[in-house]
Amino acid sequence: MDIVKLIACLQAIILKDHSLNTSDSLAILFLFATFFIVVFINPRIKRLRDKEETENQFQFSIFNGLSVPFALLDVDNRFRVTYWNKALEDIFYVDKESLIAGRDFYDVKQTITVNQQVFKTKKTFHAEETIILKSGKLINTDTYKKYMTDGVHRFIFMIRIDITELLSVREKVRKSKERQIEFVRNINHEIRTPLNSIIGYKDLLLSAEESKERQDFVAIIKDGSKRLYLLIDNFLLISKIHSNELLMVSKKTELNHFIHLELRSIKETFNRPQVKVRFDFPYLYLQIATMPEVCHLILQQFIQNAFKYTTRGQVQIGYLLEGKTLFWYIQDTGIGIPQKNWVKIFNRFEKIDNFSPGGGLGLFICKELLLHKPCKIGVYSRVGVGSLFWVSTPCTVYCGTESINPKVDVGAIRKILSMRQYGIYFESDGKKMKMVRGDKMKVGVLL
Question: What is the fold of 67-162?
Answer without folding.
Answer: Beta-Lactamase (3.30.450)
